[in-house]
Amino acid sequence: MKTKSFWIKLEESEEEKSEEETESEEESESEEESSSEDESPKSKITKEEVMEIVRQRLAKRRESAEAKRSTDNLRAPVICVLGHVDTGKTKMLDTIRRTNVQDGEAGGITQQIGATQVPADAIKERCKQVRDFTPELVKIPGFLIIDTPGHESFAYVHIFSDNSISVHAALRSVILRFLLWISLYETTFFQSAMPKLSIDRLYGYESNPRKDVYQHLKSQPQNTQLEFKERYEKIVGEFAEQAVNVCLSNQNKNVEEYVSMVPTSAYLGDGIGNLMAYIVATTQKYHAEKLSFCEELDATVMEVKSIPGLGTTIDVILVNGRLRVGDIIVITGTDGAIMTPIRELLMPQPLKELRVKNDYGHYKEVRGAQGVKVLAKGLEKALAGLPLMIAHKEDEIDFLKLEAEAQLSRALMSIKRKAEGVYVQASTLGSLEALLELEWVSPISILPLLKCQHWSIERDAQLFADQEKVKIFQADIIYHLEDNFLKYREELRLKARRENEHLAIFPCKLRILPQHVFNARNPIVCGVTVEAGQLKRGTPICVPSKDCIFLGAIASIERNHEEVLLARTGDEVGTGCLLLPMYIYIIYIYIYIYIYIFIERL
């Protein structure tokens, strides 16, 4: 309201000035133009002052929200499930949710980020069999679990998460990718947990998801316990080689020095309760201050989707603050900042995946931390992976638009671009960053090609690409893009090799076997011994002792009546030589193939 009064006073003062100027300068229009020119610098200064007022107001609002934080009012922790591809991350969440999301993924592999809200009641039900767990002490309203693809290039998701579950298979050795997760989360003030030791793969393991996993392991056969101990000690040793201390969660007395591991089974459900109980205990005990709810908005656009019957929507991870129907949101778009009011707020039922089509509930207000689907106009060109902001006052809109454009500029500046090379296109900024990271960590050279993930290629675009000789790779699975490219590159290499193999000369020394001369005229067919080097088809041959008489090129090579591509030193093979239009007899001479090249290379 103060801003509105400011603008009213400004307009009144301008009206008074205009009346005075009209009374004193009625005779000359040129003087009115000069007076308007004199006022333009003042209006420009006023706009800058308004921007500064807005900046100070937002800073004061942020400080006020931080001051009101209390550990008695906790939000749900945002937990990212990380790990290598195909280790059971989504399957573990399916066990918690009692759903079957993994089977609906392309190739059974998660390609984009998903969010699931796990309420406190579900946590208490899952953890009731865990030893030393007290349901009455659960203060957090639940978990917001983020399911991520297993590629290291998706590591950017740690920016909006509080904790991590890094899934590790007991039958696999430690991968450097897990060290990446740990290094990322050292900056988030939270403990990382490595839960999935795949205890269901232990020989003779008997499942019982209704028991405490540590108590249940003690009741296993002796050979199963020994195998678990052996694999556990191996994992501890591999992490110790990388200067990372790990131990079982029930043995961890120093969470700042040791990373906790919880043995679980994604398929059977064993240990899931222990994992959830451990996260509840550590977050409430060590990180309650960070989990205290803050009214200052902290939200990120996770994905842009078009849903039949609803139009274009955005999936938002709301960490702190509130979203209300009618709020003016400012987000980044491909053509600049987008300002639009929220039309509807949709959320799936608890324990349902946000990215999977569900029966959504309609809400007037949503409080963090939640995964929420926002309906509004003009979201078609919205960019995923950047923050969402709210303009509480009219004069904040222009300021937030500039901030949104600046965020996009900073994101694009981190991407190295050139006029020629690999053109990468993806459905979200997160997937784009992942693909770009994939270009850097993969053995991919620069070629005129286009890579697309989750992006349909129009027929005209494909025809134009074929005309310009630009190769387009399209796949729903990010890992297949790299595989397809490497396969295509190998095909090009083999094709170029076949086309130019006649240009490559491999020096060798041959001795004719006189008893195996089958044809002394065009074509020469005889047996030879390879005394040095290697003999290939297409290799030109000559006789150095006869002034380097050129005989022709090797047309075929046979060994034991079977055609072969090459013969190595010591091989005795039959050769067919295509001659020039001349008659030459060979009975006793030695044939040398580019003998002078052979000597130089030696």
UniProtKB/TrEMBL annotation:
<feature type="compositionally biased region" description="Basic and acidic residues">
    <location>
        <begin position="39"/>
        <end position="49"/>
    </location>
</feature>
<dbReference type="GO" id="GO:0005525">
    <property type="term" value="F:GTP binding"/>
</dbReference>
<feature type="transmembrane region" description="Helical">
    <location>
        <begin position="578"/>
        <end position="599"/>
    </location>
</feature>
<dbReference type="Pfam" id="PF00009">
    <property type="entry name" value="GTP_EFTU"/>
</dbReference>
<dbReference type="InterPro" id="IPR036925">
    <property type="entry name" value="TIF_IF2_dom3_sf"/>
</dbReference>
<protein>
    <recommendedName>
        <fullName>Eukaryotic translation initiation factor 5B</fullName>
    </recommendedName>
</protein>
<dbReference type="InterPro" id="IPR029459">
    <property type="entry name" value="EFTU-type"/>
</dbReference>
<dbReference type="InterPro" id="IPR027417">
    <property type="entry name" value="P-loop_NTPase"/>
</dbReference>
<keyword id="KW-0472">Membrane</keyword>
<feature type="compositionally biased region" description="Acidic residues">
    <location>
        <begin position="12"/>
        <end position="38"/>
    </location>
</feature>
<dbReference type="InterPro" id="IPR015760">
    <property type="entry name" value="TIF_IF2"/>
</dbReference>
<dbReference type="GO" id="GO:0003743">
    <property type="term" value="F:translation initiation factor activity"/>
</dbReference>
<feature type="domain" description="Elongation factor Tu-type">
    <location>
        <begin position="507"/>
        <end position="574"/>
    </location>
</feature>
<keyword id="KW-0547">Nucleotide-binding</keyword>
<keyword id="KW-0342">GTP-binding</keyword>
<keyword id="KW-1133">Transmembrane helix</keyword>
<dbReference type="InterPro" id="IPR009000">
    <property type="entry name" value="Transl_B-barrel_sf"/>
</dbReference>
<dbReference type="GO" id="GO:0003924">
    <property type="term" value="F:GTPase activity"/>
</dbReference>
<dbReference type="Pfam" id="PF14578">
    <property type="entry name" value="GTP_EFTU_D4"/>
</dbReference>
<dbReference type="InterPro" id="IPR000795">
    <property type="entry name" value="T_Tr_GTP-bd_dom"/>
</dbReference>
<dbReference type="GO" id="GO:0005739">
    <property type="term" value="C:mitochondrion"/>
</dbReference>
<feature type="region of interest" description="Disordered">
    <location>
        <begin position="1"/>
        <end position="49"/>
    </location>
</feature>
<keyword id="KW-0812">Transmembrane</keyword>
<feature type="domain" description="Tr-type G">
    <location>
        <begin position="78"/>
        <end position="156"/>
    </location>
</feature>
